[in-house]
């Protein structure tokens, strides 16, 4: 998800959702998110919950490239699949979660700093577990 701080600084949020249980596993917040951030979040989840059999991602730049592919195949041994561009119904559980996150958090707050945004948004995921 993308948003901005009160001063106009861009804000990105990576949401990781179990599509079967619909549980929010993690939300990572930063000014920019890249494949390294996705891999770090996945490694933490694998360490605490075990490796998934499947990973499903949209077509964002942070999900493309060799790093995520290598992590999925070597660290988690997961099969990686991605949604088709322009087809949000292919990832309806994630799109619904992101919409709820936007309605319940991003649209209600005007964050002054990245630290404030991280605290509030990442706290949302903890509350939804």
From TrEMBL:
GO molecular-function term, one example from the UniProt record: nucleic acid binding
Highest taxon of the lineage: Bacteria
Gene Ontology annotations of biological process type: DNA integration
Integrase catalytic domain span: 1-129
Gene3D superfamilies: Ribonuclease H-like superfamily/Ribonuclease H
Protein name: Putative transposase
Lineage: Bacteria, Pseudomonadati, Pseudomonadota, Betaproteobacteria, Burkholderiales
